[in-house]
Amino acid sequence: MKLLSSIKPDNMRNLVTHFPQLLSTLQIESSILNTAREFHKEGVNGICFLGMGGSSIAGNYVRALLSKEAKIPISVTRDYLLPTHVDNKWVVIAISYSGNTEETLSALSMANEIGSRIILMTSGGKMAQKSKHQIVHLPEGLQPRAALPLIFSAVLPVVESLAGLKITNFQYLEEVLINKSNTWNEWLAPPKEIAEAFIGKTPLFIGARHLAPVAYRAKCQINENSKALAFHSELPEANHNEIESFVKTNGCSVLPVFLRSGLESTKINRRFDVTYDLYLEMGLSPINLLASGDTRLEEMLVLTHFLDMISVELAELCSIDPVSVEKIKELKHRLSR
Ligand code: PA5
């Protein structure tokens, strides 16, 4: 993990700049992939991710990406309780960067009680002490949300092994992301320009299919890095409710940001176009951000990298420290008393 020693964990811009390199930094131990392959041979009825906040989003990315190929249900739980449909034929992947998140630990102990097969990912804390399970050890000292590329690069091969699928090459993805980020200004816009458009507005990120979790991630990054309100939604569902909501926005100046894919089906493509026109006619000023990439995975990661950088630009424009998350810390502290 040579790269990590040159990354400054207290500098979010530096971390986000190195997003592509972080994708190929973690060398997952072969024993963990072998265990996942063993589970696959024994039979896996489903995969349930447990995690909160920055540690949970990788599960949504994997679910969106592999929902068809995996041929088994993949679910993401953000709660104290393990869903009742999860039994000992399922594999549970619990992720907590700190290893101390109480909701994740609670659902994990339920998975333990019912005898689910379990794989853990953490940088330490109580989770790291659960030595009877296979543990993917994450490097310490990062903000959980900045560890997404590391977590995702570990989680995807584990799930691919559990589902008997070919394993993704992250080295090649690193190159794709570096090349794309060198030309953001040409095919998208400078991230700072988009961040400037967010000032005084509340961004509403709207995605469909594989870009729906990217919209959620963008909302969370604006919340945590830029310390600003943001929302996310998903098409086609938002066409059946949210579209009616802009008459009375309670003083909020909403800025819809459509996350567009070059791989959209004809129906989704038309829906986005018609929704964009309607929002314009309602007096909103929607933005289209077109993901670039040859595959769904490339599009997801390229756009995530770009949107992560927007959250840093917005924080800096507003003189806000994108690293500190004082309220989250305070809340966890009070709950632990
Ligand atoms: O980004 C953050 O700091 C949070 O969203 C955390 O990820 C969340 O509170 C869960 O903590 P952990 O990732 O340590 O399990």
Domain module tally: 2
Helix share, percent: 40-55%
Secondary-structure element order, as H and E? Answer: HHHHEHEEHEHEHHHHEHEEHEHH
At CATH level 3, the topology of the largest domain is Rossmann fold
Which structural category fits the helices and strands? Answer: alpha/beta
By DSSP, the count of extended strands is 9
Number of helical stretches of at least 4 residues:
15
Can you tell me the CATH architecture of the largest domain?
3-Layer(aba) Sandwich
The CATH homologous superfamily of the largest domain: Glucose-6-phosphate isomerase like protein, domain 1
Topology:
Layout: H1 2-6, H2 12-17, H3 19-22, H4 30-42, E1 46-50, H5 57-66, E2 74-77, E3 90-96, H6 102-113, E4 117-122, H7 125-128, E5 134-137, H8 148-162, H9 170-182, H10 184-187, H11 191-198, E6 202-208, H12 212-224, E7 231-235, E8 254-260, H13 266-281, E9 287-290, H14 296-317, H15 326-335
Parallel strand pairs: 1-2, 1-3, 3-4, 4-5, 6-7, 6-8, 8-9
Helix pairs in contact: 4-8, 5-8, 5-12, 9-14, 11-14, 12-14
The chain binds 5-phosphoarabinonic acid (PA5).
How would you explain this protein's 3D organization?
The protein is α/β, with parallel strands linked by helices. The chain has 2 domains: 12-170, Rossmann fold; 183-317, 3-Layer(aba) Sandwich (Rossmann fold), CATH 3.40.50. Helices cover 46% and strands 15% of the residues. The chain contains 15 helices and 9 strands. The strands form 2 sheets. The chain has a 5-stranded parallel sheet with strand order 2-1-3-4-5, sandwiched between helices. Strands 7-6-8-9 form a 4-stranded parallel sheet. α13 links the parallel β8 (254-260) and β9. The chain is globular and about 55 Å long. 5-phosphoarabinonic acid binds next to loops.
